[in-house]
Amino acid sequence: MRLCGMSRDMEIMRRYNGANASQLGRKYDLSANHVRRIAKRG
């Protein structure tokens, strides 16, 4: 599943629970650190 820009980031912020950065990274083809950065913005 590939979402772009804001849609992807909003979905990551909604799903992120502090322990699933690696799982979300795999789903959205991002590093776990990038997922954490996106979640921190929200």
UniProtKB/TrEMBL annotation:
Domain Mor transcription activator: 6-41
Cited InterPro entries: Homeodomain-like_sf (IPR009057), Mor_transcription_activator (IPR014875)
Gene3D superfamilies: Homeodomain-like
Protein's recorded name: Mor transcription activator domain-containing protein
Organism of derivation: Romboutsia weinsteinii
Biological classification of the source: Bacteria, Bacillati, Bacillota, Clostridia, Peptostreptococcales
